[in-house]
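User: Design a sequence. Structure:
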């Protein structure tokens, strides 16, 4: 996943910095080094540049620079990557205002606890209130969740 694709508020770990020359040295000097964990902050009104929290410092990067930094989520995964029978908390929903609005109408929003019932042919989840929701795998890839330690009640 590219750093520019990560939703606001998510914590990620840098896997690789695919930049050459002087720009690479500048990016590494700012703290964007492989293995470093960063938090994605807010974007400018038009989406570019974007703020990142690196080692307690707030740093902005253009999307063209963030596109060349490969990252992986820390402590989160997509709903598609979850295990059946396990309980998760929705951390974020990404990829567009319309998709987020549709998920809210279905009852899925950040902070919500979901239990994964089935993953085939669709990803079927159950909410604490008992509602069952079936999502296509492409939709489940756009929902970031973290493992919930407490068991389903």
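Assistant: Done.
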């Amino acid at each position: 996943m590219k750093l520019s694709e990560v939703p606001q508020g998510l914590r990620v770990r840098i896997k690789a910095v695919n930049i050459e020359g002087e720009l690479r040295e500048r990016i590494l000097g700012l703290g964007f080094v492989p293995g470093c964990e960063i938090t994605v902050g807010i974007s400018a009104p038009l989406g570019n540049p974007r703020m990142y929290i690196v080692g307690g410092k707030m740093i902005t990067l253009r999307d063209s620079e963030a596109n060349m930094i490969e990252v992986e989520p820390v402590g989160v995964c997509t709903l598609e990557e979850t295990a059946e029978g396990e309980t998760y908390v929705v951390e974020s929903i990404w990829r567009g205002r319309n998709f987020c609005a549709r998920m809210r109408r279905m009852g899925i929003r950040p902070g919500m606890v979901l239990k994964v019932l089935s993953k085939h042919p669709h990803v079927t989840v159950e909410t604490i209130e008992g509602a069952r929701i079936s999502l296509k795998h492409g939709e489940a890839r756009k929902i970031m969740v973290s493992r919930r330690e407490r068991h389903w009640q």
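The radius of gyration is 17 Å. The chain has a mean pLDDT of 87.
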